Amino acid sequence: MQRQLLAVIVGVAVTTLVGVAQSGQISSEEDYDAAMKDVGATFRALQGDMDARDGEAVLAGTAKLAGLFERVQAFWTSHNVPAAAAIAAEAAGAANAITAAIESQAFQEIAPAQETLAGTCQACHGEYRERVDGNARIKPGVL
Ligand code: HEC
Q1: pLDDT on residue 1
Q2: In angstroms, rounded to a whole number, what is the distance separating the alpha carbons of residues 37 and 16?
Q3: Ligand 1 atom 36, closest CA
Q4: What are the tens digits of pLDDT across the range 23-52?
Q5: Which residues line ligand 1 (CB under 6 A)?
């Protein structure tokens, strides 16, 4: 009896996790905006954690950014905008490069990777983001 109950609880937990992973997919412009706000907040926090040399927090931040940019990449791929998908892939790669630099203690590689990462924000925003009355959106006609 107890075993069955445990099985049910585990089953529910697994289903919930799968549900969360799926809902992480960016399927609308609203989702995209939310993901970007998450990117912005995580990127800002990352700068602070870098300055504070808080390795654990930096690793959590770069892992989160890599995951977000993989979803951003999938969004652009699904809308058939390969150039934007490529910038997102570069961003994910740069976040992973920071992770790798910390894990292998190649600290001199952190700054260049961080610069690459910051460069992707500007490259993509310059090409695909439009700001109207303080709100950001994907430039009309891009999707
Ligand atoms: C592959 C393209 C791409 C990359 C890379 C990218 N962005 Fe964006 N971002 C966009 C687009 C397009 C928008 C506008 C759409 C929206 O907000 O709904 C946007 C909007 C935002 C917003 C929302 C509101 C605002 O102020 O514009 C923030 C914050 C943001 N990006 C931060 C970042 C940061 C920080 C990085 C780099 C670490 C980054 N983005 C990298 C495409 C990108």
Answers
A1: 55
A2: 24
A3: 121
A4: 479 999 999 999 999 999 999 999 999 999
A5: 29, 32-33, 36-37, 39-40, 43, 72, 84, 87-88, 91, 117, 120-121, 124-125, 128-129, 136-138
